[in-house]
């Protein structure tokens, strides 16, 4: 072959090889990688299921395989999951769910007659008389009506069931409402005012949706009260960066366990009205009230009591089966009630949620059990009331136990747990412990919580995951472990804390 022809052939072969190599590279490359993923997914954080919790799961698996640790079990005090901590389900609720899941039980099981009647009423409203069918995106109408009746009875003011939408837990509704404030083309992000410390659902969702987080600090010195001056400071400062349009309030508080007074709620409503803010009231812990003198007041009730012009304000209120006395986290039942929402916006909201079809039917049924429980004279009533009161009494006992236990430990301050399911004690960490944490590029309370977990198997959430004032350190712990487990947890904690403080004094 002539030299020129050989050069041409070699050139063609090289081109062909390069093309093949390029094709192979393209075939092996991932389309979706960290560098091109939605950046908000990278920056969002959710401390309640963060690195410490991941490590707790690893420790459980290591213990199962026979690994030797300074402890024999992991106690997960990181999340408000009542059943995972040993709470017994309410009998009526589970009998009702069983009948919906397997309708033949209505004929064969020895269930009370009110359970059967209740189940038949609900199954007839399911498509094909099966809980396996879709419902409307807004939820099963009869359950929405029962929710509206519950709200009207609770507040003493009318509630139109058309303003109630059922969802997969309150979290789904909260996220859906926040989505409505995303405006990509606006010169400023929408500012969302959230309490600090706050439940990370809010900060995570705000970050994920590209909204602006406007934190207002709760006053720890006054048992985590919500102060008007602080609201005003946060709002005015936010206007430099954001178009602030939403005020979120968690009552009773998570992670702080406070219960807002009627007067405090009035102050919040007046502030929101003055600045034309949309109110979001997270009220999922409304049944969890423990402190003498504390009482739950819904924002809708107070707004109506205040009359004009406040009763024309826009409000979204949320409730859930995951908390209260039921603790049915895994059932994913919740609702949002809208008050004074613009009719056109409501149509668009319903269009938006239609893309997810509907929330789980059994979650909707569990919500019905919450808002439409057995009544006096029903066969199930006495047992239902006994079980409900036992759960709430036990939670109240543990709220007191936690406050007293942490309050008696040197280097810890703990406010009264007035409500909800959590305590949020402050850690007075020695400077050497803070320096050690900083040298490891860790938040000091994260360092403390990780050391606690590795030494004792007790899993808590560092306060830095909820937000806190600069220079302060906290942790969140639930009051959900059953009493004996709680005492074990507190003993482990006290022993560790004493050694930790001694090491770094």
Automatic annotation (TrEMBL):
Keywords: Aminotransferase, Pyridoxal phosphate, Transferase
Molecular functions per Gene Ontology: L-alanine:2-oxoglutarate aminotransferase activity; pyridoxal phosphate binding
Pfam family, one: Aminotran_1_2
GO biological processes: L-alanine catabolic process
UniProt xrefs under SUPFAM superfamilies: PLP-dependent transferases
Catalytic activity field: L-alanine + 2-oxoglutarate = pyruvate + L-glutamate
UniProt pathway: Amino-acid degradation; L-alanine degradation via transaminase pathway; pyruvate from L-alanine: step 1/1
Alphabetical list of InterPro entries matching this protein: ALAT1/2-like, Aminotransferase_I/II_large, PyrdxlP-dep_Trfase, PyrdxlP-dep_Trfase_major, PyrdxlP-dep_Trfase_small
Domain Aminotransferase class I/classII large: 113-492
Cofactors required: pyridoxal 5'-phosphate
Highest taxon of source: Eukaryota
The keyword Transferase is annotated on this UniProt entry: yes
Enzyme class: transferase
Record EC number: 2.6.1.2
Family assignment from sequence similarity: Belongs to the class-I pyridoxal-phosphate-dependent aminotransferase family. Alanine aminotransferase subfamily.
Subunit structure comment from the entry: Homodimer.
Protein name, per record: alanine transaminase
């Amino acid at each position: 072959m002539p030299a020129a022809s050989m050069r041409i052939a070699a050139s063609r072969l090289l081109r062909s090889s390069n093309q093949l190599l390029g094709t192979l590279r393209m075939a092996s490359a991932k389309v979706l990688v960290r560098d091109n993923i939605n950046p908000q997914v990278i920056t969002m954080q959710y401390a309640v299921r963060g690195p410490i919790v991941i490590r707790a799961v690893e420790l459980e698996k290591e213990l199962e395989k026979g690994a030797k640790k300074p402890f024999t079990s992991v106690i997960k005090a990181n999340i408000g999951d009542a059943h995972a901590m040993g709470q017994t389900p309410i009998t009526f609720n589970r009998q009702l769910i069983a009948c919906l899941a397997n309708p033949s039980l209505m004929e064969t099981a020895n269930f009370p007659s009110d359970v059967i009647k209740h189940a038949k009423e609900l199954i007839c409203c399911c498509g094909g008389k099966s809980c396996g069918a879709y419902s409307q995106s807004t939820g099963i109408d009869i359950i929405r009506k029962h929710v509206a009746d519950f709200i009207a009875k609770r507040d003493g003011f009318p509630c139109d069931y058309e303003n109630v939408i059922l969802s997969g837990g309150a979290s789904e509704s909260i996220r859906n409402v926040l989505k409505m404030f995303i405006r990509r083309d606006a010169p400023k992000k929408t500012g969302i005012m959230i309490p600090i410390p706050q439940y990370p659902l809010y900060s995570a969702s705000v970050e994920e949706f590209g909204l602006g987080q406007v934190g207002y600090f709760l006053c720890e010195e006054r048992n985590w009260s919500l102060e008007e001056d602080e609201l005003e400071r946060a709002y005015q400062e936010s206007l430099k960066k954001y178009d602030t349009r939403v005020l979120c309030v968690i009552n009773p508080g998570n992670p702080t366990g406070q219960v807002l007074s009627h007067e405090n709620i009035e102050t919040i409503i007046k502030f929101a009205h003055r600045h034309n803010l949309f109110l979001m009231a997270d009220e999922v812990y409304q049944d969890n009230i423990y402190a003498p003198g504390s009482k739950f007041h819904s924002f809708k009730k107070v707004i109506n009591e205040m009359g004009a012009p406040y009763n024309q304000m826009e409000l979204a209120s949320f409730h859930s089966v995951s908390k209260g006395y039921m603790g049915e986290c895994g059932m994913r039942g919740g609702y949002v009630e809208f008050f004074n929402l613009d009719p056109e916006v409501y149509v668009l909201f319903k269009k938006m949620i239609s893309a997810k079809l509907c929330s789980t039917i059994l979650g909707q049924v569990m919500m019905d059990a919450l808002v439409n429980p057995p009544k006096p004279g029903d066969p199930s009533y006495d047992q239902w009331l006994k079980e409900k009161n036992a759960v709430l009494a036990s939670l109240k006992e543990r709220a007191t136990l936690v406050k007293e236990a942490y309050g008696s430990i040197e280097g810890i301050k703990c406010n009264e747990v007035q409500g909800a399911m959590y305590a949020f004690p402050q850690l007075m960490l020695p400077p050497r412990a803070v320096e050690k944490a900083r040298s490891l590029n860790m938040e000091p309370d994260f360092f403390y919580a990780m050391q606690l977990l590795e030494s004792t198997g007790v899993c808590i959430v560092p306060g830095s995951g909820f937000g806190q004032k600069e220079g302060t350190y906290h942790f969140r712990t639930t009051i959900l472990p059953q009493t004996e487990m709680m005492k074990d947890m507190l003993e482990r904690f006290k022993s560790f804390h004493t050694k930790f403080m001694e090491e770094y004094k």
